[in-house]
Amino acid sequence: MKLYDQIKSAGLSIDILINNAGYGRWGDLTSHDRDDYTKMLQLNITTLTDLCHLYIPDMVTQGGGGIINVGSMASLSPIPYASVYSSSKAYVLMFSEAIRYEYRDQGIKVMALLPGGTESEFARVATEKSEKLSERYKEGSAAGTGMQTSHEVALECLEAFEKNKQYILCGGKNRLLHMLTKFMSRQRVLEMVGGMFKKVAG
Ligand SMILES: NC(=O)c1ccc[n+]([C@@H]2O[C@H](COP(=O)([O-])OP(=O)(O)OC[C@H]3O[C@@H](n4cnc5c(N)ncnc54)[C@H](OP(=O)(O)O)[C@@H]3O)[C@@H](O)[C@H]2O)c1
Q: Fewer CB within 10 Å: C terminus or N terminus of the chain?
């Protein structure tokens, strides 16, 4: 990979790899074309996997390292109207946990970062209806369920990485919501999440 070669030829070594680049597409499955999804899966899954595959041998040689793969709260349940995106983020969580185990005795700490709604360009890229989403979050802010800032997410991420956590779901409200879903059937969770996303992305 070009990026890997350029970093290598500059004589740099990587202590912590953070796979953050990613984007989503919202709407029902056929509202975006197949090429668009292929590009998204290339970035969210294939590139992330390639970078781990390239850097892990170097980290093993240098006696350790760290990897933070950015998943999403969407890694934790299927999301109707973001089906391909949420499935790609489920991969990020599964993959990160699996390689964490494989390399745990070789000084490599792997963690999946699962942000919930975070202020960024993300919603604008994901849907033309992002204003609707922003409005919903503003309403949520008043009720204390709004978006986190990227600064807040980064702080939670670093704190969890220091503690060598397997994954971190960011935001107290998101953690509470996720905990509540553990008492529901998968069908009920699907209905709840589907209903929420239909309003903003359907
Ligand atoms: N914001 C949220 O609510 C939220 C929630 C959960 C998870 N996440 C995840 O957080 C990560 C960062 O997203 P964000 O919220 O910061 O959104 P963002 O503001 O849209 O940033 C996306 C980042 O991905 C990079 N990127 C996009 N397409 C790329 C490509 N084809 N090749 C290389 N880089 C590319 C962008 O680079 P350029 O700036 O050069 O375009 C940018 O740095 C993503 O993995 C996203 O899935 C976000």
A: N
